[in-house]
Amino acid sequence: MITYSSIAEKSSSNSSSNVVVVIVVVVVVVVVVVVVVVVVVVVVVVVEKVVVVAVKAVLTILVTRSSSSSSSSSRKVVVVVLVVVVVVVVVVVVVVVTIVEVEVLEVVAIATELAVVIVAIVVVAAAIVVVVIVLVIIVVIVVVVVAAVVALIVVVVVVVVVVVVVVVVVVVVVVVAAAAVV
Fold it and tell me: Residues 6, 70: contact at Cβ < 8 Å?
């Protein structure tokens, strides 16, 4: 049989499991972003080292060849090697940046959606808290008003009883006095 308490237990367990799911997804997104950033940094550092080493090697070869007054064909080979290295590095950088950019955009989109969901949950929770506070204030006001009305009724009843007693006493005194006079 379904009761209100079982429904409340199910809804509270669903909301707590939803919070756990949101926390897990946020942690996963943060881990993915950190991994992507680390991969990008490592790739950029490696590419930079390769370019520096290649340029140093080419410059060393050029300086060595020019000082030993070698033929122009060896210089052409060095220039071709330098151009090939630069082209390969540029292609690798473009490919890595394109892949990382797509992954980063996906992660940013997921993180944005999660942020919107979290903000919506916080706003709804705040609205629920405000509604509960307003309801508590209304209940307190109603209780105070009812207590004041009950106190007023008690005071009126006491005053009426006192007036009736006084009137009865006065009537009795008058009757007794009249009887004594007669």
Answer: no
Query: Tens digit of pLDDT for each residue in 135-167?
Result: 888 888 888 888 888 888 888 888 888 888 888
Distance between CA atoms of 26 and 110, rounded to whole angstroms?
9
The answer to whether residues 47 and 89 touch, using CB atoms and an 8 Å cutoff, is yes
CA 51-92-43 angle, 5° bins:
70
Taken in order 72, 78, 84, 90, is the CA torsion positive or negative? negative
Beta carbons of 63 and 116 less than 8 angstroms apart = no
72, exposed or middle or buried, with CB in 10 Å at 0-12, 13-18, 19+? exposed
CB 22 within 8 A of CB 114: yes
Measured in degrees and rounded to the nearest 5, phi and psi for residue 114 equal -65, -40
pLDDT digits (tens, 9 = 90+) for 7-59: 555 555 556 666 667 677 777 777 777 777 677 667 767 766 776 676 676 66
Identity of the amino acid at 30: V
